[in-house]
Design brief:
This protein has 279 residues and is mainly β. It has one helix and 17 strands.
Length: 279
């Protein structure tokens, strides 16, 4: 997917870089969309729990089939569409019985291509979903289940893919996009290939207003605040605060592990993303 930089006829366009995408211009499939409440960083009591959220354009939520339970039915891609709720694009597919669903669009697929989901073996072409035990070692996969039949949880963002590195009975080792190596059940289904829209990370905002369209409000640096407002605030002239980088409530922001040690899936991790081996 190409990167497009337009002629800077305005100040905001001077540093604006966007993806050149050939996507459908039609409205999304009405039966697969619904409006949803945007929390704007508030909890059920209306208190801010996630700062710098709010505003932004209205969005329709597209219902995505992460389970792909229509087994051994050919599905034809009839449109590639933009989704404002995620970095990946969507593929609108139609099954043999006429049912339409949204799937995450894999890389190197287009309108008219046929994909299938099965519990057996199918062609190892992008978009086909099958159990990990039937996939050759070294294959790039995305939309990976963590439990058989529970729906895709791993490698769902634009351009991401995991790699199958080993199979041992009912356990499979996969290398995550972060570099972490973990075990999953070999009966879990995964989709061949990587998620499309890989150029998403190369795009630039160009102006502050484009962040406001996304519902992201301005951020004030801690070192620019007063000591009463932030641990890193105050000081004569410009200073880094004298302490370790942290949140206003003292939570360390660099290098401090936040994953719970009691998380049940910790036992499935072989190597952390930092290269530390756990088994």
């Amino acid at each position: 997917m190409a990167i497009l930089q337009q002629k800077p006829v305005t100040p905001s366009g001077r540093f604006y870089i966007k993806n050149k995408q050939e996507l459908s211009k039609k409205r999304p499939e009405k039966s697969l969309t619904f409006g949803h409440h945007r929390k704007k960083g508030r909890n059920t009591y209306g208190r801010i729990t996630s700062r710098r959220r709010g505003g932004g354009h209205k969005r329709l939520y597209r219902t995505i089939d992460f389970r792909r339970n229509q087994l051994d039915q050919s599905a034809t891609i009839i449109a590639l569409e933009y989704d404002p709720n995620r970095t990946a694009n969507l593929a609108l597919v139609q099954y043999e019985d006429g049912e339409k669903v949204y799937l995450l669009a894999p890389s190197n697929v287009g309108e008219g291509d046929v994909i299938v989901s099965t519990n057996g073996v199918a062609d190892f072409s992008p978009g086909n979903a099958m159990p990990i035990k039937n996939i050759p070692l070294g294959t790039k996969v995305h939309c990976i289940e963590m439990l058989p039949g529970a729906g895709a949880k791993i490698a769902r963002s634009a351009g991401s893919a995991a790699r199958l590195i080993s199979l041992d009975g009912d356990r499979a080792s996969i290398k995550m996009p972060s570099g972490e190596i973990r075990l999953v059940n070999s009966r879990c289904r995964a989709t061949i290939g990587e998620v499309g829209n890989g150029s998403h990370q190369k795009a630039t905002i160009g102006k502050a207003g484009r962040n406001r369209w996304k519902g992201r409000r301005p951020r004030v640096r801690g070192v620019a605040m007063n000591p009463v407002d932030h641990p890193m605030g105050g000081g004569e002239g410009k200073t880094s605060g004298g302490g370790h980088p942290s949140s206003p409530w003292g939570q360390l922001s660099k290098g401090f592990p936040t994953r719970k040690k009691s998380k049940p899936t910790n036992s499935m991790i072989i190597t952390r993303r930092n290269g530390r081996r756990l088994k």
